[in-house]
Write a structure and sequence with these properties.
CATH architecture: Alpha/alpha barrel
Distance between the termini: 28 Å
Number of domains: 1
Radius of gyration: 22 Å
Shape: globular
CATH topology: Mitochondrial carrier fold
Order of helices and strands: HHHHHHHHHHHH
Helix content: 55-70%
CATH superfamily: Mitochondrial carrier domain
Structural class: mainly alpha
Number of strands: 0
Strand content: under 5%
CATH class: Mainly Alpha
Number of helices: 12
Length: 326
């Protein structure tokens, strides 16, 4: 008697998983990865805000100087504020999965890459609407240098030049006092709208970046699956495709990301910031902070998909387990 060959499922959809496992594990994975990679966010933000190379010459130089003059905790300035991103992150992944599922059930767009592109863009709009205020507060926290020992005066002045809010030294040393002070300063300067400074620029960065990331991830995964031998685990191919997708999307959207960071921290308009960046950087805007962003994007893409794809497999309903290859 012939056995029927089981058709392999390459993309695990929402309806194939036990949601009681999937969503809690996704939140736990996101928190862990955010903690591991947060220092790259601090370094990237400082590289983007500085003028030219006045303080840091690159990613490694920034790492050395921050740990030397501010201690290892300097790499985690504003981390606890950034953990509020867990709510937007949950909304993001929930929206992504539901939009993909909706498109399968209610549209004729059967291509997985188109579903990924659309769902990634929509999910980013939802996520950014919730996360922009957190971004603004955490970015100001990242720029609050805290002295360890007695750094040279010139170094101290350069670090302070990054700061756009006046927060007294004694307040910075308090874990939550600095957060409260930053929130009060932003509200005093710009009111509630200050927490949404650069919102549309953020959408212009993250919506295309998210859409492109998922599009290229699906594309690279499909290409690799088509040419790789069967003995190579499917997860290994996906973990190679994820960093490639991160590099591609980061290269395309980096200039807009620099513009976004400047607008949110310096509280200027798009036109003013664009003119200032052009005067200061010229074509270097294409690569400003790019090394830190690439490192962060590659590492984040690898680990987030390691968690994401593994969790999807662990959450599979019994009826689909035989159709999914690890």
């Amino acid at each position: 008697m012939e056995t029927m060959e089981v058709q392999e499922i390459r993309v695990i959809e929402l309806n194939m998983m036990d949601k009681r496992k999937y969503f809690p594990l996704t939140l736990l994975s996101g928190f862990t990865i955010r903690g591991l990679l947060y220092p790259f966010s601090v370094i990237r933000t400082r590289l983007q805000i500085q003028k030219g190379n006045t303080i840091y010459k690159g990613t490694f130089d920034a790492f050395v100087k921050i740990t030397r003059f501010e201690g290892f905790t300097g790499l985690y300035r504003g981390f606890w504020v950034s953990t509020l991103h867990m709510a937007p992150s949950f909304a993001y992944i929930t929206t992504y999965e539901h939009v993909r599922h909706y498109m399968i059930e209610n549209t004729t767009w059967t291509g997985s890459k188109i579903r990924s592109l659309t769902a990634g863009g929509v999910a980013s709009i939802v996520g950014q609407t919730l996360s922009v205020p957190v971004d603004i507060v955490s970015q100001h926290m990242m720029l609050l240098g805290q002295r360890v020992g007695s750094p040279p005066v010139r170094v101290e002045r350069k670090i302070e030049s990054l700061q756009r809010l006046h927060i007294p030294e004694e307040v910075r040393k308090k874990r939550f006092g600095a957060v409260v002070a930053v929130v009060k300063e932003i509200y005093k300067l710009d009111g509630l709208l200050g927490f949404y400074k650069g919102y549309f620029v953020s959408l212009a960065v993250f919506a295309p970046n998210s859409a492109l990331w998922w599009f290229f991830y699906d594309s690279y995964s499909g290409i690799l699956a088509g040419i790789a031998p069967d003995w190579i685990p499917r997860l290994a191919l996906q973990l190679f495709a994820a960093p490639c997708s991160g590099i591609t999307s980061a290269l395309i959207t980096n200039p807009i990301d620099v513009l976004r960071a400047r607008i949110q921290v310096e509280r200027t308009t798009v036109k003013e910031t664009s003119q200032l960046l052009w005067q200061e950087e010229r074509y270097r805007i294409l690569i400003k902070g790019l090394s830190a962003r690439l490192v962060q994007s590659v590492t984040f893409s690898f680990f987030i998909m390691l968690g994401y794809e593994s969790i999807k497999r662990w959450s599979l309903l019994d009826e689909y387990k035989a159709s999914v290859r690890w």
